[in-house]
Amino acid sequence: MLKQVLLLSLATTAALGLQDDARSHGHLSKRFTFPLPQSQGSETLSKPQVIDGEVFDGGMKTYGRGVSCTEGEGGDNDAVFWVQNGGTLKNAIIGADQLEGVHCMGSCTIENVWWEAVCEDALTLKDGQGPFTVIGGGAQKAQDKVIQHNSGGTVSISGFTVYNFGKLYRSCGNCKQMFERHVKIDGVTAVEGKNLVGINSNYGDTATIAGGVCASNVDEICQEFEGNDTGASLLRPAADLVIVASIPSLSLHAHK
């Protein structure tokens, strides 16, 4: 029988708000206010703004597309920003009047970027093997995913705030081309969500969660799926989840 192992490493176990600890601190979510920065103006774009391997400082303005969020999935042309390989988007607010948020077309850095409301996804990693880096910023009102990882490589998420969400990070479960993907999280504040992380254990995905992560009223910290490249519906592994905890690390072993 194949044994798949997910290692969730914690720099400081006590610093991570796992399920039991999160429930004991449920009062945090009752008084939580999403810290959306004050906008310094607004711009409505007629097409995605391309950041071509350079640094774009948004000056803490709000950027949108002048459309209402719909239930249907948009495409590249519905994004607010395209960040090309090597590009950086910093100091910007993505307004609620858009569908697809930010698309990274290669290695990118997203720094101090805030989403007023997430429609389909806040940030989609489309191409390349990274690295992809998210520093600071935050997102709220995401019915499903905040960060969608379609390409390969590693995503680092540091100091991000997420509120009222489905998943902070999701490794694409049924893309036409599947990859091994990795996510590293530290210093994240997560309030009122379903999953902090969703990965495909059958493709070798891993999640590493370091210290300083506070999760309040989050149903599951790491959810495993069985991904596929056929577009079929996703399955949660029919496996017994055995949790072996020790300080300073915690390992989750999924036995098949």
From TrEMBL:
If you read the UniProt record, what top EC class would you report for this enzyme, in one word?
Answer: lyase
Its GO CC terms are: extracellular region
Ranges in a coiled coil: none
Q: Which UniProt keywords are listed?
A: Calcium, Carbohydrate metabolism, Cell wall biogenesis/degradation, Lyase, Polysaccharide degradation, Secreted, Signal
Signal sequence span is 1-17
Family listed: Belongs to the polysaccharide lyase 3 family.
**What is the name of the protein in this document?**
Pectate lyase
Q: From what organism does this protein derive? A: Aspergillus ochraceoroseus
